[in-house]
Specification:
about 120 residues; alpha+beta; Double Stranded RNA Binding Domain; four-stranded mixed sheet; 4 strands; about 40% helix
């Protein structure tokens, strides 16, 4: 799973920030590592440095093997809050999307008893 971090001109994209974002996502998405090929992270400050409520934005897009990409967005007062909120949303979305796929593949219909099983009853 490759993680690509993109920031706008108002967000410092230094190495420590990228490493922190990468570590957070690798930890949160560890159980989906076989299904995800790439995660794109877009961090932005929608008001260009002016202070206002919920102006920090984090958009996460997960590219899934053999499926359409899925994306979530979170607005918050800080970049960390936006990242954690978007990560939580993405985990729930992947649980829903991939969980249903897994259930569908592993579910077997109840078959009627046949042969020796029918005689024993």
């Amino acid at each position: 799973m490759k993680i690509q971090v993109n920031t706008d001109a108002n967000i410092p994209g230094h190495a420590a920030r990228v490493a922190g974002v990468t570590q957070t996502l690798e930890h949160a998405l560890a159980r989906f590592v076989d299904a995800i090929t790439r995660v794109e992270v877009h961090l932005s400050d929608e008001n260009s440095g002016k202070k206002s409520k919920n102006d920090q934005r984090c958009m996460l897009e997960a590219r899934l093997q053999g499926r359409q990409p899925v994306a979530v967005t979170e607005h918050a007062e800080s970049q960390d809050q936006a990242l954690h909120g978007a990560t939580d949303k993405l985990v729930r979305l992947l649980d829903h999307t991939l969980g249903r796929l897994h259930e569908h593949r592993t579910r077997t219909p109840d078959l009627p008893a046949t042969g020796d099983e029918a005689i024993e009853k």
